[in-house]
Protein: Heat-shock protein Hsp20
Organism: Roseibium aquae
Amino acid sequence: MRHFDLSPLYRSTVGFDRLFSMLDNAASETPSYPPYNIERTGENAYRITMAVAGFSDSELELEAKEHVLTIRGEKPESDADREILYRGIASRAFERRFQLAEFVRVDGAHLENGLLHIDLVRELPETMKPRKIEIGSGSQKQIENTAH
């Protein structure tokens, strides 16, 4: 099992304690089913791809609420009329949660070839975007003292 030591980051950053705590928790509590990838598809675009072979779109549920994306999958019980000698394809129910950063919204989702693709977009408000600040010339303003 992989473990990342984030203590050097705690010493060199201010205000990111919550982020590093979430990373620590995610590394220690990560379930393995179903497997997924997270990729960056653009400057402010991301995609979560989850392997959900055997699930149809009607058996999957996505919910985004308060910076948490929840993905649930549940198959109806239909094995009563079949005798399965070996089960290698998992059909168990699952629930997977992803913590979304501020200003990240779910843009869409589609199921293709057993892979669920969830597109995410980060939309920063204008006040949060970096802006260039002009540096004034060498002239200084003099403040007059009006108190006698």
